[in-house]
Amino acid sequence: MTVTAVRKDPHRLTLTVEAEFDASIERIWQLWADPRQLERWWGPPTYPATFTKHNLAPGSRIEYHMTGRAGDQPHGYWDVLEVEPPRRLLLHGGVANADGTPNTEMPIYTIRIGIEEVAQGRTRMSIESVFPSTEAMEQVLAMGTAEGMSQAASQIDAILAEETIQH
Amino acid sequence: MVVSVQIAPPEFDPLFGALADHTRRDIVRRAISAEEGVLELASHYPMSFAAVQKHVAVLERAGLISKQRVGRRSVVRTNLEALLVARRLLDQYEELWRARIDRMNELIAETDGAIDTVETKESKR
Hints:
The complex is a heterodimer of chains A (167) and B (125).
Chain A: E1 3-9, E2 14-21, H1 25-33, H2 35-41, E3 49-53, E4 61-66, E5 75-84, E6 88-96, E7 109-119, E8 122-130, H3 134-144, H4 148-166
Antiparallel strand pairs in A: 1-2, 2-8, 3-4, 4-5, 5-6, 6-7, 7-8
Helix pairs in contact in A: 1-2
Chain B: H1 2-7, H2 14-18, H3 22-30, H4 38-42, H5 49-61, E1 65-70, E2 73-78, H6 80-111, H7 115-122
């Protein structure tokens, strides 16, 4: 188990995941700082991510897209707000148009990454995601997994079914 | 897309503001059983009936409770769907990150032997 803590706040639409790794703090930073490594873990093998623009400098924009099995390519971007290698990263994320420009009609979510050494060769990373709306969460989920949309649909069905039983 | 419209109608988000208040959260809890009207609810709190009525109105606007006729009475009932949907989305998002962290671990294990070269070559800063 590398995930050491998960905190959810449905009222503030915030999720915090903490994980510990047997690796140096520099090694963990590279997971974010190197786009080729990011591509290895951001999307699942069935829905890989490609980062076409990536520079972890304040004010810069990171551009990526996912590739679905049907050839669909939803685009996304992050605006880099704060960078403090190898410890801190603050990003605003959103949905982009096919040409990579931000889709300004879509909501913006925040990801705050904190990395700290807890022991020699052991590093903790915390990832806090804050969403402005449930719609934004839905979009991020759809971008993150190929199954996002259909999963959401079946979950809604399940909730509505539960609700019926309670009545 | 149809699904996102179902999950997040525009009026959905006042829900989270409505829940930021302790009294309103308590009203939501009490109204799950849908037994009390506004007058009975008001008796639980050290504040005026008008103040409680205002809280009820905020919750109603947020779609979190609704008034329902039971015989000749009007009772306040909690609408659970909205809260459940937010909760499920957070659960799904947790799963997404757990899968990512698994992949991070695989990547770290795989590159363990080659860390030095990877880091010196790819550090751009």
